[in-house]
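Researcher: Here's a chain I'd like modeled. Treat it as a single chain, no partners, no ligands.
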Amino acid sequence: MMKNCITCGKQTKNYSEFPCPECGEKIVRCFHCRKISQPYSCPSCGKAGP
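Model: Modeled as a single isolated chain. Structure tokens:
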């Protein structure tokens, strides 16, 4: 299944999905953005992370 990375917006099959530590909203990040520690922010609450 393809999902959109919350950081770069690209569709990918290689992703990790985890709950936002602040509000529990699902965060989807592609392998590349995680590998380079690209920052992200939750679309629901704005919590930022590496």
